[in-house]
């Protein structure tokens, strides 16, 4: 993103970086350069919990897809609870993320959430009736 540093103005509301080689460092640069993004598609990237921590500062984000970001765990998803304006969150195919009552509770600050995609993500014996109540509240 260094070549963009000379821009005096850029109106960018959405960004798709599917299947690129962007890592956590690139995510931090994106967050720094484009703090008012409303839509971010990061499918199939090498993003980890540290990248999720950086994403948590995008206060205007409404749509976020982290589908296939295989290194994201419950710790990273916990960070996403800071994105209180999120309306759509795609967490499909995150094999390191275990859906539990606690991980579902970490998303309760997302009061504007209209859709939450969790398919192909591990849901073990750690989701109880309480977790389903949390899920139903979205």
TrEMBL record:
Organism domain of life: Eukaryota
Location in the cell: Cytoplasm, Cytoskeleton, Cilium axoneme
Signal peptide: none
Listed Gene3D superfamilies: Ribonuclease Inhibitor
SMART domains per the UniProt record, alphabetical: LRR_CC (SM00367)
One Pfam family here: LRR_6
GO biological process terms held by the UniProt record: SCF-dependent proteasomal ubiquitin-dependent protein catabolic process
SUPFAM superfamilies: RNI-like
InterPro entries: Leu-rich_rpt, Leu-rich_rpt_Cys-con_subtyp, LRR_dom_sf
One Gene Ontology cellular component annotation held by this UniProt entry: SCF ubiquitin ligase complex
Protein known as: Mitochondrial ATP synthase regulatory component factor B
Organism annotation: Tetraselmis chuii
């Amino acid at each position: 993103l260094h070549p963009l540093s000379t821009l005096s103005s850029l109106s960018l509301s959405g960004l798709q970086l599917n299947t690129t080689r962007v890592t956590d460092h690139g995510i931090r640069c994106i967050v720094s350069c484009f703090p008012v993004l409303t839509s971010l598609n990061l499918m199939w990237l090498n993003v980890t919990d540290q990248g999720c921590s950086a994403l948590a500062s995008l206060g205007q984000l409404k749509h976020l897809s982290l589908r296939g970001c295989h290194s994201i765990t419950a710790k990273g998803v916990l960070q996403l609870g800071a994105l209180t304006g999120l309306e759509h969150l795609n967490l499909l195919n995150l094999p390191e993320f275990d859906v539990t009552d606690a991980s579902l509770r970490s998303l309760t600050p997302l009061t504007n959430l209209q859709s939450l995609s969790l398919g192909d993500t591990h849901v073990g014996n750690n989701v109880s009736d309480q977790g389903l109540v949390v899920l139903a509240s979205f």
